[in-house]
Amino acid sequence: METPPRKIIHIDMDAFYASVEQRDDPSLRGKALAVGGGGPRGVVATASYEARKYGVRSAMPGARARRLCPDLLFVRPRFEVYRSVSAQVREIFSRFTDIIQPLSLDEAYLDVTSNKPGIASATRIAEEIRRLIREETGLTASAGVSYNKLIAKLASDQNKPDGICVVRPEDGAAFIAKMPVRRIHGVGPVTAKRMQALGIETGADLRARDLAFLQHHFGSAALFYYRASRGQDDRPVHERQERKSVSVEDTFFDDLVTEEALITELDRIAENLWGRIEKSGAYGRTVVLKVKFADFRIITRSKSFGGPVRSPDLLAQTGRALLRAQLPLRMGARLLGLGVHNLDHEEPEEAGEQLNLSL
Predict the structure, then answer these.
(1) Is 106 annotated as a binding residue?
(2) Which of 47, 82, 246, 338 is an S-S bond match for 51, by CB 3.0 to 4.6 Å?
(3) Could you tell me the pTM of the whole model?
(4) Which pLDDT tens digit goes with each residue over 282-294?
(5) Please, what's the b/e burial string for 148-164 (b: 16 or more CB within 10 A of its CB; e: otherwise)?
């Protein structure tokens, strides 16, 4: 007998950080708002929908965001509040299922094929979850409901904010066919550009290429793209999957040579990384620097501490020290990356002493 399809829901809070700030401070409601650093090296963690109309986006440098939206208001993030609200939302999820895979503080997959209330309709469950989130947190969430993770995640973005999109098994392939490949989860910006250069703009274009063609151009990822274009994804929802590392890296149009340019970019990467660390709650004891040279050779350097790094200053200071130890570089750097490994999700006993550790 054929196995019945799964019932997967992807819940994505709407402009989560910004919405929390607007909820807690009525004077910010209806305003173009960015959460993050507004200084020369600041980065936007998230933006309200009022700001997004001007093109302000997550991970955008604060200076550029201000140019796009001169009236933009910046507020510093309050991650302890976001984590508290996220815990409230997770508790709502747990009323329906224990098979929950958080992706970050503001989004998660839920497998409700078999659920606690015994509700047959995944759409009804998603609507009930959205209602409870609104009532208990004062915030809105969007939902994607489908038979696999790939399509559920794409669907949750279709009717944002405060919307729901349901894609049934018989409609999955057609749903993907209309999707720009750059929006398909698992196709990164670099791969999307390579696909576009090959004339692959949409899911339909991707489906028109056979597996041999995709293997020739995309190697080991070809099978995923081949199946994704047909609306196929067998990945299960993993309960509370643990991260092994958190990192940020950036490739540059022009290779970086001078110490000033290298440190400036590394500081920006460190600030972006700290936002991800705070968002995920995954603090690491080992800071890792990655440098890719113009000839594509890669080196990594690391420094470990006795406890998890819980200071953005220590993170940036360690990254700079690791980089300066390699100067002058043998040739220009085309990529810089910074990450934390050996993650520790427990609260440290003496986190306040970390700033005294020597580098």
Answers:
(1) yes
(2) 47
(3) 0.71
(4) 888 999 999 999 8
(5) bbbbbbbbbeeeeeebb
DSSP 57: -
Q: Report whether CATH 3.30.450.180 matches the domain 1-166.
A: no
Could you identify the residue written with the tokens 């099978």?
Answer: 223
- The residues that bridge with 341 in the sheet, in sequence order, are 245, 286
Q: What is the pLDDT of residues 2-41, one digit of tens each?
A: 678 999 999 999 999 999 999 999 999 999 999 987 666 6
> Are 41 and 69 spatial neighbours (Cβ–Cβ below 8 Å)?
no
What is the identity of the amino acid at 66? R
Please say whether the beta carbons of 100 and 237 come within 8 A.
Answer: yes
Whole-number Å distance between alpha carbons of 303 and 333: 21
Q: Regarding the domain delimited by 245-356, which CATH topology (the fold level of the hierarchy) does it fall under? A: Dna Ligase; domain 1 (3.30.1490)
242 φ/ψ sector (left φ>0, alpha ψ -120 to 50, else beta): beta
Residue 333 in tokens? 């750097």
Nearest 10 degrees: Cα torsion 312, 316, 319, 324: -160
Q: Could you state, in order of their start, the residue ranges of all structural domains in the chain?
A: 1-166, 173-228, 245-356
The residues annotated as belonging to the active site are 107
Residue 254 labeled ligand binder: no
By C-alpha distance, which of 273, 319, 328, 283 is closest to 300?
Answer: 319
Ordered mean pLDDT values, 10 residues apiece, the chain (359 residues): 85 96 96 82 86 91 90 91 94 96 92 95 98 97 97 96 96 96 87 94 96 93 94 87 77 86 93 84 90 88 89 93 93 92 53 30
